[in-house]
Amino acid sequence: MANKYPQTPDGRYFVAKNRLWRCTDPRLDEDEKRNAIKALMKARRDVRTAQQREDQDALRQARDAVQTAKEALGERGPVWWDDDAPDEGGLAPHNSSYAKWWESQS
User: What torsion do the CA atoms of 7, 13, 16, 20 make, to the nearest 10 degrees?
Assistant: First the structure.
């Protein structure tokens, strides 16, 4: 993601669609990261299948699996940094603590 999208100087977020999205926890080893990504891809396929079948129970389970995988990657749930900085994911960069950095990107 960091190559395609601007990444904040601290490596915590990338910007897409004018929103800050939390990056994967850089402390994950390659096996942990690979396994979580595989789980995420499967869960997303399961979401699509459940939607096509209009199966609400399967959809809920699949969305829960997406959440679990995103948490394993550090992209949701508790933040992976330890300096007490708040999670600014979902904010527009110009409305965040990264506003000056974002302004310098254009």
Answer: -130
Class of residue 90 by CB neighbours under 10 A (exposed 0-12, middle 13-18, buried 19+) = exposed
Beta partners for residue 75, in sequence order? none
What distance in Å separates the CA atoms of residue 106 and residue 102, rounded to the nearest whole number? 7
Those residues whose C-beta lies under 8 Å from the C-beta of residue 42, and which sit 6 or more positions away, are 65
User: Residue-wise over 16-54: b if at least 16 C-beta within 10 A, else e?
Assistant: eeeebbbbbbeebeeeebeebeebbeebeebbeebeeee
| Ramachandran class of 67: left when φ > 0, alpha when ψ lies in -120 to 50, beta otherwise | alpha
- Prediction pTM value: 0.88
**DSSP strands (E only) in the chain:** 13-16, 19-22
Q: What is the pLDDT of residues 26-35, one digit of tens each?
A: 999 999 999 9
* Number of residues that this document lists for the chain: 106
The secondary element (H helix, E strand) that includes residue 56 is helix 56-73
